[in-house]
Design goal:
Shape: rod-shaped
Radius of gyration: 35 Å
Strand content: under 5%
Protein name: CopG family transcriptional regulator
Number of strands: 0
Distance between the termini: 72 Å
Structural class: mainly alpha
Keywords: Plasmid
Length: 172
């Protein structure tokens, strides 16, 4: 039997009979004492537990960084979608204005024609903004409602998306 090193400590544990029989059979099959096999298994389990705890300590920080990056991405995506909405709405209105004002556009020449088209574009851009303002205001209201919920209940700690009734009522 190998001598225990000076860095080891004797530890007695109680296990169910079936676990003891399994460990004894496993130790005999591998040619090592049961105490050495049990010690190796306990050391492995303790190291795995320590690694898991270390990862669990880092998890909130990782979540916060990912959340910040996703918020930046979502803001850029929203900006892009708003710009696309505005451009598409203006283009649609420009096609309609061109059809409606075709005679006036056809009679204008040179820089006057370009100025006339720019005027129509500005007018159509404003019309698109006015038509979309209600949607943008609703998005701002939704964002304002969501900010207090996220500040009050960090996602890491919340067992559900809305842990109390007041958060649900604020969104209604």
């Amino acid at each position: 039997m190998p001598r225990p090193s000076s860095k080891t400590v004797k530890l007695q544990v109680r296990v169910p009979a079936n676990v003891a029989a399994f460990l004894t059979a496993k130790a005999h099959a591998s040619g090592m004492p049961v105490t050495e096999l049990g010690g190796a298994l306990l050391a492995h389990a303790a190291e795995a537990e320590a690694r898991d705890e270390g990862a669990a300590l880092m998890l909130p920080t990782v979540r916060q960084v990912v959340r910040q990056e996703l918020n930046l991405f979502l803001e850029r995506l929203l900006d892009f979608q708003i710009r696309t909405y505005m451009e598409a709405g203006t283009a649609r209105r420009m096609v309609q204005a061109t059809a409606y004002y075709a005679e006036q556009i056809a009679t204008a020449k040179g820089p006057a024609r370009l100025e006339l088209l720019k005027g129509y574009e500005e007018k159509q851009w404003s019309a698109t903004w006015a038509a979309g303002r209600r949607h943008f205001e609703e998005l701002a209201k939704l964002q304002a409602l969501m900010e207090p919920v996220h500040k009050r209940v960090p996602r890491d700690e919340a067992p559900e998306d809305f842990p109390d009734e007041t958060a649900e009522e604020e969104l209604a």
